[in-house]
Amino acid sequence: MSDARLQAAEAVESHVRAFFEGHVVEAVDHDLGPQRRDVLPDLRVLVVGPGPRGDGWAYVTAGCWASTERDGHGLEFVMTAHVRDPRFIELMAMIAYYHCGGHRLDLAHSMPIGEPWVPGSTCDHLLVSLPYLHGPDLEHCPLPGGHARILWTLPVTGAEIEFRRSHGHEALEQLFDEAAIIPTDPFRRSVV
């Protein structure tokens, strides 16, 4: 790991730990396999337990920025879930690889998971959104020589993705607000 990559990963981890002060935060290395590891050599997933900021679990990538930054700016991702489960660590690694492997996710983009978020869930896509559950203090992560923006990956249904394609990202988020969805509920009903 180069010094710059190491400093960036450490800065993301430090930022997440400071934001989630009072929570247990564990850095987990996920084996992506040899060819994928070449794309994301420094990937870690930070697993944040329940605490003062909420009773859910947060999973945050650390290592995407170093693989994709442009002029000091890049992305990391957060997902919030109802439990601790290795499945969510795998999903974060999948998101990171999808992003760094050439798809370049950004705000209002989506990604197919290829299967339910959890068994029995109708959510089989991820929508990249602002981290509404955590706010701009988590979203904006200063790094040496730049910054990372931490965006939320919200599990959504295929029907919700189709609605977004037809009506726009903001219209879909408005439906989420009107329905008062619980974003950590894997069995929530589709809003469309």
Please give a structural write-up.
There is one protein chain. With 192 residues, the chain is α+β, with helices and mostly antiparallel strands. It has one domain. It is 37% helix and 27% strand. The chain is built from seven helices and eight strands. It has helices spanning 3-19, 34-39, 64-68, 86-103, 136-139, 158-167, 169-179, and strands spanning 25-29, 44-48, 57-62, 73-81, 110-112, 123-129, 140-143, 146-157. Strands 1, 2, 3, 4, 5, 6, 7 and 8 form an eight-stranded mixed beta sheet that branches. Strand 7 and strand 8 form a beta hairpin. The N and C termini lie far apart (45 Å). The relative contact order is 0.15.
Descriptive tags:
192 residues; alpha+beta; 7 helices; 37% helix; globular
In short:
This protein has helices at residues 3-19, 34-39, 64-68, 86-103, 136-139, 158-167, 169-179; strands at residues 25-29, 44-48, 57-62, 73-81, 110-112, 123-129, 140-143, 146-157. With 192 residues, it is of the alpha+beta class.
Oligomer: single chain
- End-to-end distance: 45 Å
- The total of beta strands comes to 8
- Please provide the ordered H/E string of secondary-structure elements: HEHEEHEHEEHEEHH
Q: State Rg.
A: 16 Å
The profile of the biggest β sheet is:
8 strands, mixed
Mean pLDDT over all positions: 93
> How much helix, percentage-wise, in residues?
25-40%
Query: Would you identify the regions where 5 or more consecutive residues have pLDDT less than 50?
Result: none
Number of domains: 1
Rough outline: globular
* % residues in beta strands: 25-35%
User: Total helix count?
Assistant: 7
Class from helix and strand fractions: alpha+beta
